[in-house]
């Protein structure tokens, strides 16, 4: 993965006629060769952002570069699956792709290459209307791959798929990532992108709210934190700080927030008890990245104050 950027957005906004601000000062960069998960709840502005990247929607403000150029200039090197692709129901998957290949100005033979890449060779001769939703989505990805694009933009490719379809799509995305393809992949389900993405950018109400590798997000969002209520507190702090498996200990409202691998809960409990400290409570601050994501993107009024949390790597606060 290089230090060059396939996609750069600086302070990008989009206000639709009628007053909806779909994207609001968004800063986002996708490195060449990485798979970036673009994550946010429904209506967060993901599709609008992707449509701006391919020149389908004009930004109201800010600066966008796609493969070093303004949007729309590099379309021959960009493959996109934004909203459902249109295929002819009575034509086979292969014939649909051959048609698409002609439109894209690539040889017919590209159709068989991409069918193999998405694992549809066996059903390539069947009419499109007989495909499952998962197969239809994979054919959409195949169409986006026809031009051997440098950048692949996929808007919610797992939307509407059953669990088996999601698993198949995840496997396909993992393969694309392993061969060094730059992929920008949107989803509103964290678990779907967590395993296939090098980095994740979380947006909410058109703004970047957190960004990092899945591990960095876990750390920044407090999923690697144990809450410990112990007595005497000072002794507990000293004991924990002396242990090299513990990255940090903070005291908040009489409780200890211990940055460590939550799997060490039992070991740290034993450590404290052995040192003569009474452990009244010991639990993970949050159980999963999914919980942290939901909290981060919850509607504003119910969102708890997080000022005592280590800050996520945020674009909004940068
Ligand atoms: N053409 C349009 N005209 C007016 N408002 C729009 C238009 N397209 C989208 N919006 C609004 O912009 C906001 C962001 O929508 P967008 O589709 O970009 O979000 P999203 O994160 O992709 O959501 P979803 O996951 O539901 O597709 C929403 O409030 C939506 O209603």
Automatic annotation (TrEMBL):
ABC transporter domain mapped to chain residues: 7-230
Organism from which the protein derives: Micromonospora zingiberis
PROSITE patterns in alphabetical order: ABC_TRANSPORTER_1 (PS00211), ABC_TRANSPORTER_2 (PS50893)
High-level lineage: Bacteria, Bacillati, Actinomycetota, Actinomycetes, Micromonosporales
Gene Ontology molecular functions: ATP binding; ATP hydrolysis activity
Keyword Ribosomal protein set for record: no
Tagged with keyword Phosphoprotein: no
Keyword set, alphabetical order: ATP-binding, Nucleotide-binding, Transport
Record-given protein name: ABC transporter ATP-binding protein
Record region (Disordered): 298-318
CDD domains: ABC_BcrA_bacitracin_resist (cd03268)
Record PANTHER family: ABC TRANSPORTER, ATP-BINDING PROTEIN
Biased composition (Polar residues): 307-318
Entry's family note: Belongs to the ABC transporter superfamily.
């Amino acid at each position: 993965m290089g230090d060059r950027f396939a996609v750069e957005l600086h302070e990008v906004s989009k206000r639709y006629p009628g007053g909806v601000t779909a994207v609001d000062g968004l800063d986002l960069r996708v490195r060449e060769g990485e798979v970036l998960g673009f994550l946010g709840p429904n209506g967060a502005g993901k599709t609008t952002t992707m449509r701006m990247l391919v020149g389908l929607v004009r930004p109201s403000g800010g600066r966008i570069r796609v493969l070093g150029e303004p949007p729309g200039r590099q379309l021959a090197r960009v493959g996109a699956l934004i909203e459902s692709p249109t295929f002819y129901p009575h034509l086979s998957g292969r014939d649909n792709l051959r048609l698409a290949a002609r439109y894209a100005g690539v040889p017919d033979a590209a159709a068989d290459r991409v069918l193999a890449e998405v694992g549809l060779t066996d059903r390539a001769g069947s009419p499109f209307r007989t495909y499952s939703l998962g197969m239809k989505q994979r054919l959409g990805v195949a169409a986006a791959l026809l031009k051997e694009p440098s950048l692949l933009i996929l808007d919610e490719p797992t939307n509407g798929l059953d669990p088996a379809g999601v698993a198949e799509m995840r496997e396909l995305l993992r393969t694309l990532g392993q061969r060094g393809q730059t992929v920008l992949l949107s989803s509103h389900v964290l678990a779907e992108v967590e395993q296939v993405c090098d980095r994740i950018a979380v947006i909410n109400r058109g703004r970047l709210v957190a960004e990092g590798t899945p591990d960095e997000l876990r750390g920044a969002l407090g999923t690697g934190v144990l809450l410990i209520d112990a007595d005497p507190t000072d002794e507990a702090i000293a004991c924990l700080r002396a242990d090299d498996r513990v990255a940090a200990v903070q005291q908040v409202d009489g409780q200890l927030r211990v940055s460590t691998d939550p799997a060490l809960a039992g070991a740290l409990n034993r450590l404290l008890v052995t040192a003569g400290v009474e452990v009244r409570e010991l639990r993970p601050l949050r159980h999963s990245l999914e919980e942290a994501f939901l909290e981060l993107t919850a509607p504003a009024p119910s969102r708890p104050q997080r000022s005592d949390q280590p800050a996520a790597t945020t674009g909004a606060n940068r």
